[in-house]
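question for whoever is on the cluster today: can someone run the full assembly for these? two chains, 733 residues total. i dont have access anymore since they changed the login thing
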Amino acid sequence: MKQSTFNNKYLPYVLLVPTMAILIIFLFYPAIETFRLSFFKVHPWTGAEKFAGFYNFIKIFSDAEYLRSFALSAVFALVVIAAGLSLSLLVAILLNNKIAGIRFYRTALIWPYALSPAIAGALFNFLFNPANGVMCYFTGVRTWLTNDKTAIIVVIIAAVWKNLGYNIIFYLTALRNVPTAALESASIDGAGAVKKFFYITFAFLSPTTFFLFVMNTIYAYFASFGLIDVLTDGGPAGSTRILIYHLYKDFFVHSKIGYAAAESLVLFTLVVGVTILQFRTTGKKVHYQ
Amino acid sequence: MKKWLLILVVSLLVISGLLTSCEKKVKVDESAQVEIEFWHAMSGDRIELIQGAVDKFMAENPNIKVDVQYTGSYNETLNKVKSAYKAGNAPDVFHSYEIGTLGLINSGIISPLDEIAKKFKRTIPWDDFFTPVQSYYKYQGDHYSMPFNSSTPLIFYNKTFFKKAGLDPDNPPKTYEEIRAAAVKLQAAGYKTPVTWNLHSWYFEEMICLQDQPFVNEKNGRSGKLPTEVAFNGEAGVKVLNWWIGMEKDGLFLDVGPGWSNHRAAFGSGEAAIVMSSSSDVNVLTAALTEKGWEMGTGYIPRPEGAKGGVAIGGGSLWMSNNHTPEEELAALKLITYISEDESQIKWHKGTGYFPVRKTAMDQLKSEGWFDDNPNYLTAFNQLLDSPETLNTAGGLLGIFPEAREIVESAIQEMYAGKPVKEGLDEAAAKVNASMAEWNEVIQ
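^ ran it for u. tokens below:
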């Protein structure tokens, strides 16, 4: 068969225009604008700008609350990733069994992913809010969301639950691709279930795990905003105010545009940095088939 | 020859331009077709109420078409206004909360109401507005925005529970000591957490007003200079929180967190017998208690024994953005004036519980006998009219009020968790002061 070829030199560029236009307008331009604004003091109403050098960066890094938020975000992300991945792997293994009604279980366990973070937040608010939360009634503790030590736990549970479906889908697909031949030959060689899981299944799952690791890092840093906004408003006393929420408050509530731009640059660098680090370290250990 | 003609024409144009700019009176075609935009921050049933008032206005002014939009909370609305202004299509009229006042006056994006009214030779009957309402929105003798939805906080209490606990259902507690005593009695009668309100700095601010103390320096932000330091960490603020936090520590007060639904729920379910909330909640709370067959009463918000201050109004007002054609400006002016007039205010009051901003509207409601059937609607008024007229009860103004509120609320949560009141307030004050200094610099 003859391979069809493009003879028109310009056609590829024409075809690229729509995508590039969207990327430039909605991604590159705002990103560059943010980068630029982080070096300015900006009038909250008219947007008039005054060059300020590194002022915004110096200010945010000398703010104790921002530093606390920095540490909090790291802990939050770590727990959400660790709990999210291990739990979803466990559920995926269970869902990989051939039992009656498995399709129903699969759907039921995956659907939370279809909810928007705000709706998930509203559901958890329904469970834990101090006035009439269902869990408050059952546990006899009503300070879940008003105590600065437990509020973050509720937010973590909600964040893990919300993203569980996403992780399960990927793990489930990966599990089905683990070659049975490898597992069988391991059995013949006398490997037990635990050994088989860690030496064979897990090795085959490593590309998925690595991918989910990166995606969950991004999720924990960026996408948990809606949950926090609905559940705790960043409180009590700033105990659930992770970086993305701090940024939201500074831009949308306090109109500190320069600070917010600097904060988003920091957040951007942080997440890109973490991802590169993951590629450099864990990425090397990943076994691709 | 041609050159001369050109010079002549140009100079004529320049002169006529100079002449028109000297002329004070603006010529505007009142019957020209105009379209204006109006963004507001009132959700739920209130969307329909506002649309109704605007429809009526359009029927009376057939040449004006108003596009009304509910644009989210006050904060969201202001953010949208900001972006729209930068893009050059700000709404002609927008709604802001009262605490946005000083920020907007200094924003450079608004047309002051008095200026616009003067431009079109229209007089707004300010004498007809309740003094506390206009003194909140008046800055240095000028009105910048049109008062619209006004409220004050109130105490709401469950009369049925009061009777059961042996308290006088017709005599609500008025002081800190009385609230506490009532709470102790209610608790003894089996109501475990008798008192609650949502975590909101507004109550704290109002309870400082009640002691006739300022919230910020520079005459409570009204001297004409931007305030530089807060005053809320003084004796008055400490007094308020010692009482408030003290009740929480002793298990009389239920911390329901921020937001406006939890305390309503606790009151509606019968868990709390006394709540503080906005007077605009009269409708909602009456309905919630009636459903359970309980009777509700309202009272003034509490003060320390002997305090001589009063309440400041809360709520919002309507602003006009600048850079519009004279026709649009006039239409906007007509619209906001119409909304502040009796007919629209009376409907608004009956539908929400926000009180009318004009005396004539109030007189009409009184003569209709509205308050005989709905005495709880009257409490907010009386509380306001019983308030002395001072700079403190006019309400504090500061540019970063929304942030200040958040800082105060965070401090209160730290106090719930055990931080001493004075220490928490001093820390909050330092944060607000630092932020205020930055804002003052950027805004100029």
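summary bc i know u wont read the tokens: The first helix of chain A runs from residue 11 to 37. The interface with chain B takes residues 41-47, 50, 129-132, 142-143, 145-148, 232-233, 235-238, 249, 252-256 of chain A (CB under 8 Å).
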